[in-house]
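Handout, section 4.2: multi-component inputs.
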Amino acid sequence: MHHLSERNIIEAIARQSRGGPPELIKGIGDDCAVVRKAGGLVDLWTTDALVQGVHFDLAWHPPRLLGRKAASVNISDIGAMGGRPRFALLCLGLPAACSRQLLDELMAGFLEVLTMHDMVLVGGDTVFAGERLMLSVTVCGEMEERHVCYRAAARPDDLIWVSGCLGDAACGLALCRQGLRAEEAYLSLCRAHLDPQPQARLGRLLAQSGLIHAMMDISDGLATDLAHICKASGVGAEIMAPDVPLSPELQKTAPALQLAPLELALQGGEDYQLVFTAPADSSAPLQDLCRGAGRDIACVGRITAGEGVMLCREGERQDITFRGYEHTF
Amino acid sequence: MHHLSERNIIEAIARQSRGGPPELIKGIGDDCAVVRKAGGLVDLWTTDALVQGVHFDLAWHPPRLLGRKAASVNISDIGAMGGRPRFALLCLGLPAACSRQLLDELMAGFLEVLTMHDMVLVGGDTVFAGERLMLSVTVCGEMEERHVCYRAAARPDDLIWVSGCLGDAACGLALCRQGLRAEEAYLSLCRAHLDPQPQARLGRLLAQSGLIHAMMDISDGLATDLAHICKASGVGAEIMAPDVPLSPELQKTAPALQLAPLELALQGGEDYQLVFTAPADSSAPLQDLCRGAGRDIACVGRITAGEGVMLCREGERQDITFRGYEHTF
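Output:
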């Protein structure tokens, strides 16, 4: 399964499953499904699976951090709509060779992140799954309907913002593959891959501020995730290469691995930062808001009336629409 | 992973994830999690995974029926609390060799059952999963809080009832394994394994009637599922062997396969019928209710003040507690 065909499959499934009751505000096609309930609130639902040898390698992924990551990537989707995660369900596919210790560490990590976010595990299934460990997680969140941030809400002339730095996770994966996980200098990069921090609190803050339009999390690289926003909103995007936030560690380490920092940032995936759009006159209050919350955000470009995602670098424009990370290795 | 250790794992996880907000009425440990919401209603959540080579074999399982089954087994859990299934999320783990046609048939079957139950697919994830096809499904349902039927509600002297006939699915699996799926005489037995019919409407009817106490669905065989009810309720159960409902097809076919019909019924699993308990004075109205709905139910024994599940046969008592189906083949 290549990335493009995964996307095609999801689009085909979405076409087949249109409709639904009036309380279903959004089905397939955003970070979460959105279902209206009483009191001006909505439920948010999302599901994401991690498969051994596809999304993680136990050779370098400590089980506790893997358990944390399985929770975090789903919490990230709730945060990307602006919601508060509440409950999780976990389907655990266990290989024959799975030890009790691995399982205990995995669950400890998973539950640790749930506790951090005031969430509870409410159900699950444990099955024998052959050769590969597999974690399939569903998370339910909640928020006020009027604050939900959809992918489809970007408008021409919006500025495009991202939280944190991009590319660290992809560089961390490259370091892990080369057996460099334990090196002191690479800890923060490796940690970005092994134990990403979902920006759920920031997402909630941004949504409640009323300052922003579209939002989603960056799981497949900015080039792909921004392309989702553009497609859903019927707009285009221009990214200014020099404005993409790169950590000092990435800028120092990537070249030594023969990797281009900017490419990792745009196409690397798994950063689980947020990308969001906002009208230009929101910039000052947005920066104040995030500074107050101790979060860095950076303006990386603007939404256009065109289509696709263009990278502007040294006077050239390059189409990078959907040039994101493929979940294979 | 053997069945017993699966159960141990779930119990260990449940111990680690106690607590939660006051609106969480029931977490891990029943057919569904139960969360209170406005208007006297609760949400019900359940998740169940099917793994190729563990829960199904594509050599004899037509993809459309497999898609149907993945939906049905989750809908069965919602029905077992008395709820109305509403929404589904699907994590699809696809092997490298998965064809577009297989995928289309699988999804057609899955969505067909959702439509039959007025449900909508609201989200999912599609991942490459190595060697095995895997379907991990989460279903959310809804019902009135005062009608929820828990496992823990059985009381001494309740009568024990089951819907439909038991053992057909296990016999059907044996027939499929022997390549006899296409034989006209075996169609209904094979269908019970390949395309089980969840008793969600009957479950809802029973729950709303106020006539019953505990209820759950029979996924692992009556011996195991009734043991769950007994353990949760702090009671015992006696099953009268001659009263266990066996279909004419099962009684005719099982002996020819060197299988005992009663063992398949008690330990075979995957029938997705309902087992429920009710005070003796509910018997007549219960039978009227089910007759009116065109559903057969049979009284198979009674709840005792003891513990464990006893099988009473020809004057002998045999302990069959948790002697159910192991999800392996």
